[in-house]
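Q: What residues go here?
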């Protein structure tokens, strides 16, 4: 009869060490999450990670257009005419001279800013200027731009009319 290579306690220790090592390996393979952007209307808020990012490099205009049109995973927030719209980004977004701006249905609605928060009391995102019925939802994006004004990341949200 042969003796076991490891005792019961030894096998459990080796198994636990293997599980911890595998867990650390998996965690080290994960990407660092992107900074969050947040949209707040009244007491409701939604936050999202970047839908597209260049990882410190600039995005091509084709990639930015693709990001604007791909709103499948965009977080949705309800908005009523006259509500205060609040937009914010984490401080990492405006580090190193970068700025961000808000874009509604592909059209910029703010100038690039190095502030992390903007508020628009009584804004009417769904105003049509007398051009027919307002849509039931709009695509709101935040674009991070470099010091040179080139896009670096895009966050997407859907604003739904109450």
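A:
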């Amino acid at each position: 009869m042969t003796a076991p290579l490891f005792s019961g306690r030894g096998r459990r220790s080796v198994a636990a060490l293997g599980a911890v090592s595998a867990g650390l390996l998996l965690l080290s393979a994960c990407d660092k999450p992107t900074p969050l952007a947040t949209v707040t209307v009244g007491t409701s808020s939604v936050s999202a990670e970047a839908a597209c990012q260049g990882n410190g490099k600039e995005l091509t205009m084709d990639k930015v257009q693709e990001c604007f049109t791909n709103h499948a995973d965009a977080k949705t927030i309800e908005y009523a005419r006259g509500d205060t719209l609040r937009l914010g980004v984490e401080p990492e977004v405006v580090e190193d001279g970068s700025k961000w701006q808000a874009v509604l249905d592909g059209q910029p609605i703010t100038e690039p800013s190095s502030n992390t928060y903007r508020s628009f009391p009584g804004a009417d995102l769904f105003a049509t200027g007398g051009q027919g019925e307002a849509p039931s939802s709009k695509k709101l994006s935040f674009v991070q731009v470099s010091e040179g004004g080139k896009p670096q990341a895009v966050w997407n949200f859907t604003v739904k009319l109450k």
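A: Context that may help when evaluating the design: Residues 8-29 form the longest helix (22 residues). The helical segments are 8-29, 61-69.
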